[in-house]
Amino acid sequence: MTTETLRGTLLSIAPTKEVVGVFLILNIFAWLVVRVSQRWMASGQTTRAATPDLEKPASRGKVARVPGTWLASDFKRPTAPPYPDWDVHTSKPIPYRPFRYGPKYFVTLGLRSMKWNEWIELDNHYLKYHADKKKRLEERGDKCYGTAPEAMNGAIELLEELCEYLPERYPTMFQKTPTGIANTVTNETFNITQRPLAEDPMAMAARLVQDDLALMFERADGEYYLLAGAILLAGFWRLSDKFGMRLSEIHTSGDVPQYREKLEKGMMNFFRRLTPEEPVVRNNYFIQVDDSLAWSHSIGPEDAELVSWSTAEKNKAIENHFFRSERQSLRRLPKTGAVVFTIRTYFEPITDIVKEPFVPGRLASAIRSWGDDVSRYKGKEKYEEVLLEYLDQKHKEQVESGLDIEKEEDVRSYPL
Fold first, then answer.
1. What is the DSSP string of 3-49?
2. Contact status, residue 235 vs residue 296, Cβ threshold 8 Å
3. Are residues 300 and 311 in contact, defined by beta-carbon separation less than 8 angstroms?
4. What residue segments make up the domains of the chain, in order of their start?
5. 16 burial class (0-12, 13-18, 19+ CB within 10 angstroms)?
6. What does the pLDDT average to over 231-236?
7. CB under 8 Å to 225, separation ≥6 — which residues?
8. What is the pLDDT of residues 130-156, one digit of tens each?
9. Are 55 and 269 in contact (CB under 8 A)?
10. What is the DSSP letter of 365?
11. Which residue from 383, 344, 377 is spatially nearest to 98, judged by alpha carbons?
12. 266-278: per-residue pLDDT in tens?
């Protein structure tokens, strides 16, 4: 084809003004899509729910903080609205079911952004937990709570935060007083202004909430250490074993699966970057083969030198199987820079939770997805035969009763 012929052909198909206009609009739109996509990807954002980017580098404009130092922040937690219609006798626990279908189990930190008004969760099990904690404090004393001298200011700051938050969120049970807080249900008053305090601040804080509590502090080596805590209902670990340990040592001494390979770097980056404005939450779960919330005696006596799943009886009756779930929140206190863990345990018979639609099938799939390391950590060998047979049967009964598996995602979302 000659140049003249090509020119004539192009002229013969010359677009109208309307076509040119549409063409230009489409090109501009395409350019915008590309630019937005590039910026979106560069910032590491996705369309998924907000989850902290654990390995995000520090902002260029910020001056690096010297390890072990903290410049007090003027941040103040937003006022919490009262929990709607909350009642210590009738408000049921949130039914956390933080397990996913297989075939693969992913070892991740699983952090999600937390709403400020959801920092502490209380329900109609409060009085039982309170009684259990009171008994533990009396019987075990400082084996399950303590505050290092260098952590005292952080522990007192935690007390101050609780004395502000609880009357806001649960006004039918807590009232703020000139010296602290009053529990109008248990008729207890807590003076947090006197010095010295009447008791260890972590023991005092523990009697206010259903959670176990732990405070981590950064030292000059850049590592975070467990220097204050009240661990009363942990089930599988003892504060006396972990007190004073570095964050990484706490996890490696507990044989947390794949901690070195998949969790340590991200966790350390997260702790160093955590600000008072950005609280997070995560959930986990275990199977327990005895009915003790405070200490799982099936893994051995609480005061034994070593405790492990090796002592647990194998394949006990299904009535001895319990679903143990934890909701953990993490936040940095603005004045002292201490990082607060709240660890709220939910404890229910397996025979109860299988009555919920989809739960037996999903839990069975999740347990089967555990790798060998996770299975050892969670004691799977001791209960898998009885538990999986039971879950499979209950799942079959639900399907035969008309349960539509395909609709599960329409009625639930993680971690429920």
1. HHHHHHHHHHTPPPHHHHHHHHHHHHHHHHHHHHHHHHHHTT--SSP
2. yes
3. yes
4. 112-411
5. exposed
6. 97
7. 216, 217, 218, 219, 244, 245, 246, 247
8. 999 999 999 999 999 999 999 999 999
9. yes
10. H
11. 344
12. 899 999 999 999 9
Per DSSP bridges, beta strands 188-191 and 180-183 are antiparallel
Task: Indicate if the pLDDT at residue 92 is higher than 90.
Answer: yes
Determine how β-strand 224-230 pairs with β-strand 145-147.
antiparallel
- Burial class of 138 by CB neighbour count within 10 A (0 to 12, 13 to 18, 19+): exposed
Structure tokens at 124: 């109609």
How far is 240 from 223, CA to CA, in rounded Å? Answer: 20
Lowest mean pLDDT: which of 8-22, 156-170, 353-367, 376-390?
8-22
Does residue 69 register a pLDDT over 90? yes
Beta bridge partners of 346: 325
How far apart, in whole angstroms, are the C-alpha atoms of residue 127 and residue 124? 7
Q: Is 271 helix (H, G, I), strand (E, B) or coil?
A: helix
Q: What are phi and psi of 225, to 5 degrees?
A: -125, 145
- Neighbouring CB atoms inside 10 A of 89's CB total 8
The token duo for 90 is: 């009738």
As a whole number of angstroms, the distance between CA 357 and CA 411 comes to: 10
DSSP 235: B
For residue 186 the two structure tokens come to: 């248990």
H helix or E strand, kind and range, residue 224: strand 224-230
10 Å CB burial of residue 177 (0-12, 13-18, 19+) is: middle
For residue range 221-232, what is the model confidence (pLDDT) as tens digits?
A: 999 999 999 999
18 pLDDT more than 70: no
Please check whether residue 349 is in contact with residue 321, taking contact to mean a CB–CB distance below 8 angstroms: yes
In 132-257, DSSP assigns E strands to: 145-147, 174-177, 180-183, 188-191, 212-218, 224-230
Residue 392, CA atoms < 13 Å, CB-side half-sphere: 8
Q: Which residue has the tokens 């969670």?
A: 378
DSSP 132-144: HHHHHHHHHGGGS
**Per-residue burial over 241-270, b = 16 or more CB atoms within 10 Å of its CB, e = otherwise:** ebbebbbbebbeeeebbebeeebbebbbbb
Residue 122 forms beta bridges with which residues?
none
- Structure tokens, 62: 């910020």
Contact 54, 266 (CB under 8 A): yes
Q: Please, are residues 21 and 29 in contact by the beta-carbon 8 Å criterion? A: no
Where is 205: in which H helix or E strand?
Answer: helix 201-206
Q: Which residue do the tokens 């899509």 mark?
A: 33
